[in-house]
């Protein structure tokens, strides 16, 4: 009965494909950004400062962290309290962000030099 062997191969192939599809669905549900968009961590803004470097402003609770992000590391550049007039999610950052960014970069240069 050659059809029995063929049917077993088709069933096994179907089970493997179903397992791959279930695993892909599970991974999509557990994406790293899924937890950060709902609560205590939010990206306020960012800017490229080099080909592989950028400066990112992160809101953690009532604190803003200015981070320098490179290919090999992440450095804390400056910590500041969240302004009372902070932009809500989806809006542009307040005009004070550019001043804070310039001050943090200038202080970082002074420390290195």
Any overview of this molecule?
The protein has two domains: 1-30; 36-112, no CATH class. The chain is elongated, with a radius of gyration of 24 Å. The mean pLDDT is 80. The N and C termini lie far apart (82 Å). It is of the alpha+beta class. It is built from three helices and four strands; from the N terminus they run H-H-E-E-E-E-H.
List keywords for this structure.
single chain; 113 residues; alpha+beta; 2 domains; four-stranded antiparallel beta sheet; 3 helices; elongated
What is the topological layout?
Blueprint: H1 2-29, H2 33-36, E1 41-48, E2 54-60, E3 63-69, E4 74-81, H3 96-112
Antiparallel strand pairs: 1-2, 2-3, 3-4
Poorly predicted runs of 5 or more residues: none
Please tally the β strands and state the result.
Answer: 4
Distance between the termini: 82 Å
Give the domain tally: 2
Structural class by sheet pairing and helices = alpha+beta
Strand content: 25-35%
- What would you call the shape? elongated
Largest sheet composition = 4 strands, antiparallel
Widest sheet: strand ordering: 1-2-3-4
Strand and helix order: HHEEEEH
Number of helices: 3
Radius of gyration: 24 Å
The mean pLDDT is 80
């Amino acid at each position: 009965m050659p059809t029995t062997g063929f049917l077993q191969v088709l069933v096994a192939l179907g089970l493997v494909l179903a397992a791959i599809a279930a695993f892909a669905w599970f991974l999509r549900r557990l994406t790293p950004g899924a937890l950060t968009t709902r609560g205590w961590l939010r990206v306020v803004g960012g800017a490229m400062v080099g080909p592989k470097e950028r400066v990112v402003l992160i809101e953690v609770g009532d604190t803003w962290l200015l981070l320098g992000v490179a290919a090999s590391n992440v450095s804390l550049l400056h910590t500041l309290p969240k302004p009372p007039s902070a932009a809500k999610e989806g809006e542009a950052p307040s005009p004070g962000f550019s001043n804070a960014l310039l001050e943090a970069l200038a202080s970082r240069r002074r420390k290195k030099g």
